[in-house]
Each structure stands twice: as C-alpha cells, then as structure tokens.
Amino acid sequence: MIREIALTLTPEEAASEEMITQAVASKLRLKRSDFTFNIAKRSLDARRMDVKVQLVVEVYVNQQRPPLFTPVCFPDVSHASHSAIVVGFGPAGIFASLTLLENGIKPIVIERGKDVHNRLIDTAKLCQSGTLNPESNYAFGEGGAGAFSDGKLYTRSVKRGNVKKVLALLVQHGADPSILYDAHPHIGSDKLPYIIERIRNTILEHGGEIHFSKRVDSILSDGERTSGVRCSDGEEFSGPVILATGHSAKDIYFELERKGFVLEAKSTAVGVRVEHSQFLIDRMQYHSRDGRGLYLSPAAYSLKTQVSGRGVYSFCMCPGGVIVPASSEGGSMVVNGMSPSSRRGKWANSGIVTEVRREEMDGDDPFSVLRYIEGIERSCYNPGFAAPAELLVEFINDKPRTAPASSSYPRPLVLTRLDDVLPPIVAVSLREGFKAFGRMTRSAFLSDSALLIAPETRTSSPVRILRDSSMKQGAGLYPAGEGAGYAGGIVSAAIDGTEAALRLGGDL
User: What strand order describes the sheet that includes 225-231?
Assistant: First the structure.
C-alpha cells in the first residue's frame, strides 16, 4: 500500500531522518518496522516568526520503497546510422546531446571553449589578475554560463517539458538526490563541474564525439537546407545542426543574419548586482535577530515591483555567494553571481534588474537591444575589469560618495556614480524599485553596508532566432536554449535542448 501524507515540522525535526520517521509513524499510527518512505517534496515556510518545513512524504506500507528515479540506459552509437552536430555544450547542448544519444543518434559536439576543468584555470586568472581569455571564461566553455552560476535548478517551465527527467539525469551523474524533491533545488558552483565531466564521459563512452576549443564560424547549406558547419580552423562537419551557443555568442547572430535567417530583437532586463551580508539576509527572511540558527539553510529572497509600469525584480539570487567578472570580450564589463553548494559564504548577492523593451530601442533591426546592452557594458568598463560600485543608500539618496565597502568581488572596485554609467530609464527604475523593496522589508534591504556593483546585463538573450517550421531554419537547423531566445536558466535551457533533439530525430 502506498500513502501520501503532508508533514509540517520544525527545521530541527526535518533535518533528522529519525524524527521524520517518528512523525510518519505517529500520523499513520504505524510501527516503524511496517513502512518505508521517500520524500516527494520539501519546502520552507518562512512567512512567520515560527519557521516550518513542509514535507510531502510517500509512505510504503509493508513493502520496499522504490528508487527515487530510474537511470537512463544509453545505447552505443559508435556506428549509428544517423549523427547530428551540437554547437555549444551548455545546458541546452548537454541535454540535446544526451537526448540524441538516448535515441540512437550520434552527437558530435563542437564547443568553442575549453573543458570545464581547464576553464576553471582561465576564470581563476580573470579573477586574480584581470586576464581575460575571450574563448574560455564565465560565458564560454564546457557547461556554458550555467556551470558557474550556483547550479540553480528552479524553473517555472514545468509545462514545456520533462523537468523530472532533467533533474534525474543530473542525479544519475552525481548530483545530490535532494534536487528531486526540493522546492528550490540547487547543486552549487563547486560541484557542478564534476557532474558536467561525468556527462561528458557518458557521451564519449557511448560513441559520441566532443571537440573543445573549436569555434563554429559558418553555417553551411545545401540549397535551402542547413547541411553542416565550418569551424575557424577550416574543418567542416556535415549533418543537421542543433544550435545551442548561449546568449553571449554574438558572432553566431551576425553569421545567421548574413546567411538570410530570420532574427528579431528581444526584450530583456538589465541592472546591477546588490550585495548584503548573508547574516542580514538571514535575519530579514527568518524574522530572527539571531539569523538562521543551526538547522536552516542560508536564506534567499525574491523581490519584485512595478515602477511606472516597468518591472523591477531580483534575479539569480546567490546566498553565501560571490560576485565575479563575467565579461566575454575586452573593453566591456559584466558581472554575475555564483555560490558553492554549502552557501556558507559571508556575502549574499542578487541581480536587481529592470525591463528593457525592444520597442524602446533606436532602430527596428534584430540587434537594437544588443547594441543598447553593449553600450552599458562599455560605459561600465575599467581596465583590469575593476567594477563600478556604489553604496545602495547613496545611490538612492544621492548622498556624498564614499569608498565602497568590502566585497566578495575579486577585482578592484571603482567608486562610481552609477547614474553616470547606466541609462536614465534603468537608473530611475532601479532607484524606485530599491525604495519599494525597502518598504517591503521594513527597511532591512536598505542596509547602510549594502553595495551595488554594475552591470548585470546577461539575464537573457537580446536576440531571438525565429524557428517557425515554415521558415528556412526549419530545415536542418534547430536553434535551442538561451542563445536562441527560448529559455532562461539551466532547466529551461535543458528542456529546450531536449525538445530540439526530439524534433531533429523526428525529421530524420
């Protein structure tokens, strides 16, 4: 017999399997020897002073509990009759490749950056000395931008594809099983590279190919059908193409436009990173002067408001995290946030961004929003990727500027009036949004030590590659993921890559 029950426990009780077992036995009036259980869902209710953990538990009475998931058995595709090219090995490309493999199609992956461990060396150089490798950084390389962004797996795209299967494949390759039932699952930027490496090995061991440090420069066609790609070293690969290049590979957009593909500008969001002490966020979210205590995880927040009809909201919140230079080209400044699996760092950071609408841009060409973002990134650049920074309260109140406080950012901070480097509509919207967040949090968010670091500009692609089946790119080219303008985050990109691979397989 299978029973599903809901439990409301204290954080201490929820941290103990023994206490959960006691709660199940008490609620169902069973002996502990008569049942086993799996946790189906775990969430935190921190709306009141008395923080509770909500569990949904599947109880198996007088029977063994089943495994949390069934591993996928991949076939060997070394001599498969069909192959497909996957350009880019971020979340969309990774899950497109796994889906091709599962369906007996040989994936041939072409990634402009390095493998994830050599990529770590290049990101360390960027943080330590400001030396940027334009082909291997926080945007380019195995795992894509998601490899160093905390591994946050929460998504609202549950109707677009099989979220459970995406999470199960990550667990199959080493992720903690808790991601299968946590309401806001995450892996951690310290653990995700090893999971990505295991996925790479699965693809190689079953006959797939992966080519690193190989940039695709040209899309090849045979009549009106995409027939393959040409790389910067002149090597060509033939076959249908899943294009999963991520939101920072601007050169691909220009190549597609030259070849007559249909692109359009896409609205996005830009802003800054705001950094608080994690202790302050714990106190704010858990309503306790003592912070999170022994059994609660480092607190996160999600804030949103409207300013004159324009959304202002938190994005990619990183408890216990750090802010890093995420530029992919010289002369431009971009920051992003990441945090390890423990989230035990001193600082908490989040993007606070506001909408940028394509209809507000100069020009109606596909690159109007992209040019707008490039302008922000250039205006914020300082040599060595020193980041413009300003105290939050000084940005809001236009007080005399003081030196930025200490920060997790590994490069120097440059005292900057952010109104001078951000477009007026962005600065005004952020300022009013911060004031609203202060009201929502009884002024806790407006801490005197809170720091703004600019700019956060890579929230989503500013260009969309149209992929209606009636258009040219419906034949042989399958744009997927964030770079194609159809996803935002690891799981939604993984789902989109999966769907692209299934469409390709159906067309063979």
Answer: 216-222, 225-231, 236-238
